[in-house]
Design a protein that fits this description.
Shape of chain B: globular
Distance between the termini of chain A: 87 Å
Largest sheet of chain A: 7 strands, antiparallel
Distance between the termini of chain B: 67 Å
Largest sheet of chain B: 9 strands, mixed
Helix content of chain A: 25-40%
Number of helices of chain A: 15
Helix content of chain B: 25-40%
Number of strands of chain B: 12
Radius of gyration of chain B: 22 Å
Strand order of the largest sheet of chain A: 15-21-20-19-18-17-16
Strand order of the largest sheet of chain B: 6-4-7-8-3-9-10-11-12
Oligomer: heterodimer
Strand content of chain A: 25-35%
Number of strands of chain A: 21
Shape of chain A: flat
Strand content of chain B: 15-25%
Chain lengths: 550, 306
């Protein structure tokens, strides 16, 4: 039964969900709780530090939580995101040790640092470094190091409750930080001493078992350490003894270490540096083929490709290609990479070329369409369109292909937003929604009734309104003429004003209300002008040109 | 190849010549077949529903070709407005023929200058759904034009609109570019519109000059109907060149409600707006002006929202 003692670091994140909400922009002034529906009642499963200070905690009913703290914001719990966050943290912790694992039910991660701690100046230095980095990223944590998994878990959760500093390490046996393993008996004695005052829940036993033990008058681990084992097993089950043995290292326990994600990378090394254009083209073509094959065999598809090359002098360069949808088609890769060979400057030669796929996602294998079967015209059009976006983005640069998206905002410049076309496919079939215009069907029978309610909007809008010189009657008449780009426009027709006030809750100080006029000059061209500031409020008025009508 | 059965049917029709519609269809079909033997792609025409314009275009706007819409830089909204109306009509035409209209690709001029950016609310007001619009936003006109070839080759697009603002190139460059786009557009049957300042040499199917129309000022005397009718878009259109057609000049309006072009009679010099009486100011009848500014033309929806 000789089990080797290891150096296990257990980090517990009590406010993981709250930290995620803060990362996603939730205000940190309100306490928040995360609830789950249990038997028809909403129960709190997690909270934020602010809520914790107000006395809210896991297991409480949401109604009770609201009674204690009326300003509390409640969110439904998202276990998948919690797990994903823990998974990412465990992967990040691989910087300390190759053996890291996720403890999902308790929101924690294990790190087995045995043999790796000297790289960080011992366990103490490693823990300090780890805690500093995690706290910098806004996470609350409790952690502990112990020779066994069970002891580390118990220390992290129950030793010195309510503190976020290193709980037990100073009092830990000095052996834990010494490179030479101490005598086993000495280690065991110190573990008994430290674990004895901890409550029985620190042993990771079932709640029923724990309450049964409490009814029997057993409160802390020290109470059952000295008891005869056979009656304990008979009365409370084998699980209690197993957990106790695991905590003291009498039974081997280990966590399931995470497998690191394999980077999707293919590379080509050259015996002699290559510089000829044809060789570079061949290299790119080889890498594209290999990448497509690798993605196919792993069942993945990439959203972004990185083509890199290393020069003789050690200089490394890379170029990124963005795809509008996950893909693994060699033909597409070839087409997107076609113009790239001109942009590679080999200087004295290229030693290595590689291609890495990023943002990979699983893609079910698609059967190749049979030759004699006509594919539906719709799917091919979509495919062509998507590949057009890819080609244009590869050719003109990231962010050059966009879609327009309406925004619920009365400020004209904020009422539309451009979205990257790679991320959003156009909904051509969906009727225009959210645009300040009547939705006209192809027949447009009902349009006239609607069109009177839509405010006029120009077809082209100046991103920055141009200041103009205007002749207009005070206080609020439409202009009679204006000068723009040294040309005088006499106005023959005007309508308005349409008053658009700045959103007082977000606008910077000094923003004024605008009165928009639609005017037509003597040539017939229509403009959208506005007066910034209201003379009736005593503000100085300035005139601007903001757009052009059809 | 020409079908024997069709030939027989045509013979019968030529005998009684009562059903001229089917005969015309037959002749059209025959022309298309000869064209395909010849290696040329048949012209598909989209009537604009304005009789003089359609006759000048010999039937309508040819689809799958390159059309050029020229205008002065000061009147940028006017040219893009006319292009939007044409594209809107084209989308309606394509959906009426049973083919789902694909997305529209618009390569606008750099918004850094005085041109301004495309505004979805204004496009929607003219009847073009901005959701089906893809905008290729690159500040370099030369690179935009070079990519146009690639865009025009894509199947399934409804139309491509490209602006070549302020690009100084030789006529040789333009001839070659337009020829290349033309070949790409013919293969994919995508209609391409080029927008910009007038060019000396080009090989486009049609060349239009679009200017703002002062015609609408005439309607100011009429009792005010509605804000929309008062502000119907109108253009002074000069069809400078049309392959297989003849030049045309006139004022064309756009009916927002039905999405149709309308023909307007031109304003004569005598009643031109320069000499128009002051009462036409602000597009209101004299009694309305005297009523003062209490009853503004602000739309009720706006009032509510504010």
């Amino acid at each position: 039964m000789a089990v080797t003692y290891r150096h296990i670091l257990y980090i517990c994140f009590p406010y993981l969900a709250a930290a995620r909400m803060h990362r996603h922009g939730a205000a940190s002034v309100h306490p928040m709780v995360f609830v789950e529906s249990v038997k028809g009642a909403d129960r709190v499963v997690a909270c934020c530090p602010l809520a914790r200070r107000r006395g809210l905690g896991a297991g409480m009913r949401l109604a009770d939580a609201r009674a204690l703290c009326p300003t509390v914001h409640s969110y439904s719990t998202d276990l998948a995101s919690d797990h994903a966050d823990l998974h990412k943290l465990a992967l990040w912790a691989r910087r300390y040790s190759p053996l890291t694992g996720v403890d999902e039910p308790a929101n924690g991660i294990w790190i087995d640092v045995a043999g790796a701690e000297h790289l960080f100046g011992g366990v103490r230095g490693l823990m300090a470094d780890c805690a500093r980095r995690l706290r910098q990223s806004g996470l609350h944590l409790r952690f502990a190091a112990a020779p066994t998994c069970g002891a580390a878990w118990a220390l992290a959760h129950y030793a010195r409750p309510g503190t976020h500093i290193l709980p037990q390490h100073d009092a830990m046996p000095a052996a834990a930080v010494q490179p030479v393993a101490p005598p086993r008996t000495r280690m065991r004695a110190s573990m008994r001493q430290i674990l004895a005052p901890l409550p029985l829940a620190a042993l990771r036993i079932e709640t029923d078992t724990e309450s049964a033990l409490q009814r029997a008058g057993l409160q802390v681990i020290g109470d059952i350490m000295a008891m005869p084992r056979a009656p304990l097993a008979t009365r409370f089950g084998n699980d209690l003894l197993r957990r106790l043995d695991q905590a003291f290292g009498d039974v081997q326990e280990s966590f399931c270490p995470l497998a690191p994600p394999q980077p999707m990378i293919v590379s080509r090394n050259f015996a002699e540096p290559v510089a000829a254009a044809s060789d570079i083209v061949a290299m790119i073509s080889y890498l594209a083929d290999e990448m497509a094959r690798l993605l196919y065999h792993t069942g993945m598809a990439a959203r972004r490709l990185e083509l890199g090359w290393q020069l003789v002098d050690g200089g490394r360069h890379c170029h990124h290609i963005h795809l509008s949808r996950p893909s693994r088609q060699a033909a597409l890769f070839h087409r997107l990479l076609a113009g790239l060979s001109d942009r590679i400057n080999p200087e004295f030669g290229i030693e290595t070329g590689w291609m890495q796929a990023h943002d990979c996602s699983p893609l079910a294998p698609v059967d190749q369409p049979l030759q004699h079967m006509a594919t539906s015209a719709d799917s091919t059009a979509g495919e062509n369109y998507a590949s057009l976006i890819d080609r244009l983005v590869a050719r003109l640069g990231y962010g050059s292909v966009v879609h327009l998206k309406p925004q619920a905002n009365w400020q004209p410049e904020a009422a539309q937003q451009t979205m990257l076309a790679e991320l959003t496919m156009p909904a051509a079939s969906v009727a225009a929604a959210g645009w300040l215009a009547p939705t006209q069907s192809a027949t447009a029978q009902s349009a006239p009734a609607l069109s009177t309610t839509a405010p006029p909007r120009p077809i082209r809008l100046l991103a920055h309104p141009h200041p103009i010189d205007v002749v207009a009657l005070l206080p609020d008449h439409p202009p009679a003429q204006f000068i723009w780009q040294r040309r005088t426009h006499k106005i023959i027709k005007a309508s308005g004003p349409e008053r658009i006030a700045p959103p007082w809750w977000t606008a910077p100080a000094g923003s004024k209300s605008r009165d928009y006029f639609r005017v037509q000059d003597h040539h017939g061209a229509c403009f959208w002008l506005y007066r910034d500031g209201l003379p009736e409020r005593g503000e100085t008025a300035a005139w601007f040109l903001h757009g052009f009508f059809a | 190849m020409i079908n024997k059965q069709q030939a027989f049917r045509a013979k019968n029709f030529s005998k009684n010549s009562s059903n001229s519609q089917i005969k015309n269809d037959y002749l059209e079909n025959l022309k298309n077949q000869i064209g395909s033997i010849d290696g040329r792609v048949a012209r598909h025409l989209m009537p604009l529903a304005v009789a003089p314009l359609d006759s000048a275009l010999s039937g309508g706007l040819a689809l799958g070709r390159v059309h050029m819409l020229c205008g002065m830089m000061q009147a940028h909204g006017v040219v893009s407005g006319f292009a939007t109306a044409l594209v809107r009509r084209l989308v309606t035409h394509l959906s009426a023929t049973g083919k789902p209209a694909g997305p529209v690709v618009w390569c606008p001029a750099s918004s850094a200058g005085g041109a301004g950016m495309l505004y979805g609310h204004g496009l929607a007001a003219l009847g073009l759904d901005p959701a089906g619009l893809m905008i290729v936003d690159t500040p370099h006109p030369a690179r935009r034009m070079a990519a146009l070839d690639d865009i025009a080759r894509t199947d399934g697009l409804a139309a491509v609109v490209a602006e070549y603002d302020g690009m100084q190139k030789s006529s040789d460059y333009w001839m070659r570019l337009i020829r290349r786009i033309q070949l790409a557009a013919e293969a994919s049957r995508v209609t391409v519109f080029l927008l910009g300042a007038p060019l000396a040499a080009n090989g486009c199917e049609t060349v239009w000059h679009i200017a703002p129309s002062n015609h609408a000022s005439n309607t100011a005397y009429a009792p005010v109907k509605s804000a929309q009718q008062l502000w119907q878009p109108a253009w002074q259109v000069r069809l400078q060149r049309a392959r297989g057609g003849y030049p045309f000049q006139g004022h064309i309006g756009w009916d927002l409600a039905s999405g149709r072009f309308t023909e307007l009679t031109a304003v004569t010099e005598a009643e031109s707006p320069a000499s128009a009486p002051a009462q036409t100011l602000f597009g209101r009848t004299p009694d309305q002006i005297s009523a003062g500014y209490q009853n503004r033309l602000t739309q009720p929806a706006m009032r509510q929202a504010l």
